[in-house]
Amino acid sequence: MRSMRKLFTAIAAAATLAVATPALANTGATKLEHKEWSWQGMFGQYDKAQLRRGFQVYKEICATCHSMNLVRYRNLMDIGLSEDDVKALAAANEVQDGFDDTGAPKMRPGLPADKLHAPFPNEKAARAANGGALPPDLSLMNKARKNGPDYVYTLLTSYEDPMPEDFHLMDGMNYNPAFPGHQIAMPQMIFDEGVTFADGAPNKKENITADVVAFLNWTAEPELDTRKGMGLKVMIFLAVMTALFYALKRQIWSRIDH
Hints:
two-stranded antiparallel sheet, 7 helices, 4 strands, disordered N terminus
């Protein structure tokens, strides 16, 4: 059931990005900057410190518009947050929990089992606050596009590229050469020193962006470290078994030869 929900969310996210500029979705080449990510390759793993910084970026910048409906507060313990931190984060927001005897919504402090707090109560409210555009849910954003991490990184760092003189920018849109059609409703949100990290990590625009992209990849593939760890164990097991069977085969055939 969860896998089906993830599939539908990814399709919806991709569709939202595609329809944001319907008349221009297939015009003009888009730029793409390829980066080396810690989780790529056979032995790649997430950098937990980077994931925590990425969550901070999401919380302080992205969460003002974008939801993460497939992530629950308790999941954040997997990137190194303590149980007390998770409880405090969840309790900072109120969650509707049914209705009272008069039909009014009953509110309670959030719990670790709740989803991350969404910035808007529904789609209509989200569109009304964003000039008619619907900010997509970010839970699976890195899987909604081919080369997702590179695409999201390039998108978030390309706003300052100069716009061609003959380019017609529609009202309410922002120029971004990484977005299909080069026009996007979302303005630039990440700037140098826009976030201060407790661990003293660099906070240039590129560093902040890389951190939040890493976090978005974790939300899309939280099982990646476990999967790769299991794959390595299986490979070692198969190598040992192959060596044992080969030794056994040599022993058996040595007797037959004599």
